[in-house]
């Protein structure tokens, strides 16, 4: 059993962690400070709120993010339980094939995605962004969920089956209530990827009323220059939902990311 670290060791670890965090905090502080330049805090943020379709774009991003989270969560939990706790032929081969998606950049799939969206007539449809985004996120979340579910003792699942639960019932009644940390990881990660996506909405949602929040900074750029303080003010507002969601689920997220990374 590991011994409890002394007060000195904990202080050294805290100082080291703080020093490591500073380089990551600097861009955020610089972004907020830059948003106060130029015409000032009130004028910059007022311009973002009044001169752009921020509310409509935020609603579009929220719809896409919720759709992505729903698909990613359902696919990840079902597949994670199957690969982590069930036995079937070709399990390792299928799991390895899915993990190939981790090394495929989205930009490499643009041409086939464009052909598929055009064939199904999905231009200016949320599904044209939601489905491709979800498929690129699932390999990573599945890797974490499979490792997390594999760590759940078999005795717990056997007890549920003795009480009459089917495999699906065991997943719903036993595994999912025990999987709050990995659920937080899936929600935060899927939301982060969907909310920050820029290229797919720009390509497939060509109607201006369907553009997402990541296009708001473009309203302050032009051919011969850009209004940087207003761009940074827009970026601050875009980042707020991600920060709020992470802070709300931080406790579960940290437990889930550490438990899912260890097998």
From TrEMBL:
ABC transmembrane type-1 domain: residues covered: 58-249
InterPro entries from the UniProt entry: MetI-like, MetI-like_sf
Superkingdom of this protein's organism: Bacteria
Gene3D superfamilies reported in the protein's UniProt record: MetI-like (1.10.3720.10)
Entry-linked Pfam families: BPD_transp_1
TM spans (from-to): 12-33, 62-81, 93-117, 123-145, 171-192, 231-249
Keyword Membrane included in the entry's annotation: yes
Example of a GO biological process term: transmembrane transport
SUPFAM superfamilies: MetI-like
UniProt keyword Cell membrane, yes or no: yes
Main location as per UniProt: membrane
Mode of membrane association: Multi-pass membrane protein
Entry's localization field: Cell membrane
GO cellular component entries: plasma membrane
Keyword annotations: Cell membrane, Membrane, Transmembrane, Transmembrane helix, Transport
Family named by the database record: Belongs to the binding-protein-dependent transport system permease family.
Protein name: ABC transmembrane type-1 domain-containing protein
């Amino acid at each position: 059993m590991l011994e409890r670290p002394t007060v000195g060791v904990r202080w050294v670890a805290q100082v080291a962690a703080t020093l490591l965090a500073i380089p990551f905090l600097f861009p955020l502080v610089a972004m907020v400070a830059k948003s106060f330049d130029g015409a000032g805090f009130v004028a910059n943020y007022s311009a973002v709120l009044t001169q752009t379709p921020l509310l409509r774009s935020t609603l579009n991003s929220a719809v896409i993010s919720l759709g992505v989270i729903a698909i990613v969560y359902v696919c990840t939990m079902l597949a994670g339980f199957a690969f982590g706790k069930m036995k079937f032929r070709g399990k390792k081969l299928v799991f390895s094939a899915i993990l190939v998606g981790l090394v495929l950049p989205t930009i490499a799939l643009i041409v086939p995605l464009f052909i598929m969206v055009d064939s199904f007539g999905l231009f200016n449809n949320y599904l044209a962004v939601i489905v491709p985004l979800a498929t690129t996120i699932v390999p990573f979340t599945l890797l974490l969920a499979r490792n997390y579910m594999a760590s759940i003792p078999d005795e717990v699942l056997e007890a549920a089956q003795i009480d009459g639960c089917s495999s699906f019932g065991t997943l719903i009644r036993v595994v999912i209530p025990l999987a709050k940390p990995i659920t937080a990881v899936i929600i935060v990660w899927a939301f982060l990827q969907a909310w920050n996506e820029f290229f797919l909405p720009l390509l497939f949602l060509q109607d201006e009323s369907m553009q997402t929040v990541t296009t708001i900074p473009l309203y302050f750029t032009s051919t011969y220059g850009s209004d940087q303080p207003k761009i940074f003010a827009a970026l601050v507002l875009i980042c707020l939902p991600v920060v709020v969601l992470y802070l709300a689920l931080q406790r579960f997220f940290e437990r889930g990311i550490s438990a899912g990374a260890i097998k």
